[in-house]
Specification:
Elements: H1 5-20, H2 26-34, E1 55-56, E2 62-63, H3 66-76, E3 83-87, H4 93-100, E4 104-109, H5 112-124, E5 131-134, E6 147-152, H6 161-165, E7 167-177, E8 182-189, E9 195-203
Helix pairs in contact: 1-2, 2-4
Subcellular location: Cytoplasm
Enzyme class: transferase
Active site: 64
């Protein structure tokens, strides 16, 4: 669980890569420059930790590409103390970014193996979500709604209605929508039944699956 000067230097190089790819939010860049991404990966992948690539983790899932994490985080426009719902805890890397941005994070993971691993791991490196939940992300978390932001970190074939309904007025849902290739989509809730939709190009995610494993 070491974080060396070498790792820190590699992180700064990664931040430069993200700036060159168009990420502008200083808070997001600062978070990525601070979080020891190599600790979220199996030791065999340490050399790859600060490349702008996705890598496999447990349960046939991946740790997202840093650019994708930064892109989604930037779209959310998180303010300190915002309640944020994350669908797909995965390795916990995106969770850590949200926590660095000052969010109160509620995160749902449907893979038991990953849920257990990440629930143990995040507090060990100083990241404490409000709640990590083993459950079905399609249902959201109605008992804690409304949320200022909701982020989905897996490709969704459609936009789950419960997630839209759990957004606060003015809230933002960032979700990759599509089957094989996903379009990064932002919904902003303008009123009880009114949503503004924006699309931001193609991304590739592991599929968002219903129910729990």
């Amino acid at each position: 669980m070491k974080d060396t000067f070498k790792h820190q230097g590699m992180r700064q190089q990664l931040v430069e890569v993200l700036v060159n790819k168009g990420i502008k939010d200083h808070k997001v860049l600062k978070a990525i420059g601070k979080i020891p991404r190599h600790l979220f990966m199996d030791s065999g992948f340490i050399d790859h930790a600060y490349q702008d690539k996705a890598f496999p983790i447990a349960a046939d899932q991946t740790i997202s590409q840093p650019y994708t994490v930064a892109f989604q985080s930037e779209l959310l426009r998180v303010s300190p103390d915002d309640k944020v719902l994350e669908i797909g805890t995965g390795s916990g890397y995106q969770t850590a970014v949200l926590l660095e941005l000052g969010a109160k994070v509620y995160s749902i993971e449907r893979q038991k193996e990953l849920y257990k691993k990440t629930s143990n791991f995040l507090p060990k490196i100083g990241y404490r979500a409000k709640q990590l939940i083993f459950g079905d992300g399609y249902k959201g978390l109605p008992e804690e709604a409304p949320f200022q932001s909701i982020i989905v970190t897996a490709g969704a074939p459609y936009v789950p209605n419960p997630l839209l309904s759990q957004l606060a007025i003015g809230g933002r849902l960032v979700i990759p929508v599509g089957e094989n290739v996903q379009v990064m989509t932002l919904f902003i809730r303008k009123g009880p039944k009114e949503f503004e939709k924006h699309e931001f190009g193609d991304f590739r995610f592991v599929p968002m699956l219903e129910d729990k494993n």
